[in-house]
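Example 3.
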Amino acid sequence: KAGVTQTPRYLIKTRGQQVTLSCSPISGHRSVSWYQQTPGQGLQFLFEYFSETQRNKGNFPGRFSGRQFSNSRSEMNVSTLELGDSALYLCASSKGADGTGELFFGEGSRLTVL
Amino acid sequence: AQSVTQPDIHITVSEGASLELRCNYSYGATPYLFWYVQSPGQGLQLLLKYFSGDTLVQGIKGFEAEFKRSQSSFNLRKPSVHWSDAAEYFCAVGDLFTGGGNKLTFGTGTQLKVEL
């Protein structure tokens, strides 16, 4: 059974550019959550999608957005990149969205903003 | 708002020694609690979770955790540490009761080093 796949694994951007990260959940999982991991702030929740609808959103500026497709694959976009957006972005999938299930994490997309 | 505190940033133990990683939480209701482990360059893997019932929960890789409501704690333990346990460990609380779905609030993590 394939795990959560995130692409790209590594990318380098410059300030002001935008970036799109992709996440393919485990087959049959309908919930996809995104987290930002940095040395200073740790793991912070970005948003969660379930059946193409955003269920929850963390405390991030509007430059951070996401969406989910009918096949449960998800993308997140960060526009007008800032140096502080450099981070490991982790995607997690789960069967449901009731908070009781296990989250399965991908290996992350490491974004460096120069 | 809920929060999680992991007081120990780094812990070093000898292989074969016992381990206890501390976690304290703040949450207005009965919490949903989790421990995750992250190896270098990897995503997070669930070790164990607590929702209700028996306050001592067993997880994978020989780990267990005990929920103590009076102390707002959910400490992770392992009787005998293996070198492969070296990793970063995260305690987290779910936000189910405010409609948070799968939203987790994580602690800052504890980096475990195992001396051979």
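Chain A touches chain B through 27 residues (CB under 8 Å). The mean pLDDT of chain A is 94.
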